[in-house]
Structure formats: C-alpha cells, structure tokens
Amino acid sequence: MTKINPLPLIVLLSFFVLSCSDKSDEDNPFTSGCKLLSVYFNSDSTKMYHYDESGRLVLKWDLFEQGPAFLKSHYLYQNDRLVCFYRSPDDSTFFTYDSQGRISSYEWHNDTSGIRQIRITRFIYNSINQVITETSKTSVFSGSKGILPDDSTVYTYLDQNVKTRDYYYWYDTLYTGHQHYEYFYDSGKNYFSSTGEPMIKYYQWSRNNLIGISTGGYPPVTDSIMQYNPQGYPVLIHSVQGYNITLNYYCQ
C-alpha cells in the first residue's frame, strides 16, 4: 500500500444514525511524520487504518484469523475533535473533553441480544497531562442487574512510559479484587501515537512501544523489535506468542 485512501462521503451519512453531527474540514496536506496504514499478525489477522486528506483517522478495519469475522470502526469529528466512533448503530462510544482539550470521559453504549449496557469511564490527570486514575461504571438494563460499583485503575510512570497499573474491581457488591501489572518498553516511537485513535488505553499513553508485561511478580517474556523504519517506528516485531507482526506506514 503506497498512499492513504480518503473515506468516501457516504460514511458521513451513517453519522446521523447515531444522532451525532460532523463537520468537514478544508483539505490540508499531511504534517511531517508517519501514519500507520496496516498491521499484519503472521498474515492471519489484520488491522487497516484509513485517513482523510487532513490526516485524521476515519476508518479502521479489524479482520480476524478465525472465519470471516471483522469489525469496521468509523471515527467522527466536530470542531477538530473526535466526538464519537461506532462499529454499528448498537455499538457506539462518545467522548467529552476538559478545558485543556484532554479526554475527560468516554461513554460506551452497546445493545446486543436485547441486553443494553452503558459504561462510563473517567480520567484524572497529573500536572504534566498523564492519566493517573481511571474509574469505570457499568449500567446493565436487563434482567435483575442495575448499576454496578465503580472499577478503578491507578497508574505510575517512568521516563514517559506507563510503568505500573493497579486494577481494583468488584466480584460483587461486597468483595473486591486487585491485580498489579508492570510494563516494559523498547526505545522506539510508539506506533499507536501515529494513528490518531482516541487516547484511552494505557499502551497509547507511553512514548515507547510496550514489549512485555509482568503480573504477580513474575519476570516478563518480551517481544523482540526486529526492525525500525528511518523515522523510528517499528516495522517488524517477533511476538512472544511465536509469530511475526508486520507494520506498514505512510511517511513524509
């Protein structure tokens, strides 16, 4: 793949299914840097990213190795901010921002087989704009369940990378669980940062690429970055699961 394909205008019409509104921008050249176009997991599963002419992510395909299953995610903007993305009319996520332009919360709506769920996740930042606390609450509008207690996650950082994650969750309304994770990185540029996806996952907040996770005090087994492009992004990764990951970019 040698160039970026703009999303056809018909995708914008789907926006009204979700009661959102989109504003098209003037065509602008890409700024210097790289955009991730595709990720191949041992030629079995694939992620493909598509951008508009100003470089914003507008469509992502996830194709899986088992059968013909795939997910197609649409990303929709207003006033130069991502306001929502959806995989179907029944699976949508909406974003809110604080006064500094950071994502303060997002709200996931899902309705599958008559079970409707709404999950609200909120972020607290430190003075240098790193997420240090994340809380999530799920409402289930089916059967006997209602609003569940909050889950919470606390993060620490080292050299602009997420170093630890402590996840506290509820087994039920009386008992909680706790999991501790420690993360390890390479020295290259984090390829997630080149996509423009909403920064709502811990592996997106780091400067470098996550290559290993330790849980319960066990030493990590790390991925191996086999090759980088001239801009410093990984193009070939050997996974600890035994397969290769190939990444393709559009760079200027």
Write the SSE topology.
Blueprint: H1 10-14, E1 34-41, E2 45-51, E3 57-63, E4 70-78, E5 81-88, E6 91-97, E7 103-112, E8 115-125, E9 131-142, E10 145-147, E11 151-158, E12 161-170, E13 176-185, E14 210-215, E15 224-228, E16 234-238, E17 244-251
Antiparallel strand pairs: 1-2, 1-17, 2-3, 3-4, 4-5, 5-6, 6-7, 7-8, 8-9, 9-10, 9-11, 11-12, 12-13, 13-14, 15-16, 16-17
Q: What keywords describe this structure?
A:
disordered N terminus, 17 strands, globular, 17-stranded antiparallel sheet, 2% helix, Porin, 252 residues, mainly beta
CATH topology description = Porin
- Domains, number: 1
Q: Give the terminus-to-terminus CA distance.
A: 15 Å
Q: How large, in whole angstroms, is the Cα Rg?
A: 19 Å
Q: Give the integer mean of the pLDDT values.
A: 83
Proportion of residues in β-strands: over 45%
Level-1 CATH class name: Mainly Beta
Major sheet description = 17 strands, antiparallel
